[in-house]
Amino acid sequence: MDNDEFISELAFQYGFNSKENFIRAFKTEHHILPTEYKTAENSLKLYNKITFDNTDFTVSPQIVTIESFTLITYKSDEAYTPRFWNRYNAKGLSKILSGGKIVRDYGVCIWNDETGKLDYYIGIKKDDANGDLRGAHTLKINGGLYALVATPPTEHSDFVNTIHETWDYIFCIWLPQSEYRFAGGYQFESYVEASRIYSEDICIPIIKNEGEAL
Prior knowledge:
By secondary structure, the chain is α+β, with helices and mostly antiparallel strands. About 30% of the residues lie in helices and about 25% in strands. The chain folds into 2 domains: about 5-30; about 60-210, Regulatory factor, effector binding domain (Multidrug-efflux Transporter 1 Regulator Bmrr, Chain A). Strands 1, 2, 3, 4, 5, 6, 7, 8 and 9 form a 9-stranded antiparallel sheet that branches. The protein is globular. The termini are far apart.
């Protein structure tokens, strides 16, 4: 099946009256073309199914000490982070930075007081960056105490939803109930897209609450 036939079938299957309308709607939602998605098969943000399952979502953070490291990254120009990941993966930006090698990718966020929103970056470790670095930014991630959380393994179609659930759990449930608080600075997530293992590590800088023994 060639790309045109694939896209046409999907368009009519989901109620679009033409391939062109489907392509336009797909790009508006995900900011990549259907053909780019078909080639890269990156994880897209999909909508959760309605469910009456009352099983609570939970993860178990590990408390770890991480040494400082440096990343070479691209800064997101998207208001919605998954769309920037779509472009990064579909356009092979990781391999452009690495010089063709498959390496671990990092998504990094930090609150920007001036703009009142999160700044977000995606890239790879400086030691792996042996390719075309034009337009890239250097970020230093400070070492220290972190909460390390592995997202529950899931399927390709539910990966982004699971990542969002994990972030929500960390900040809305685990941190308020723990003996730690957010230390500020860069938070990051990392995984290897090409592994097709749909789980990632999330790392949050933390500090003991005042009055807690170290």
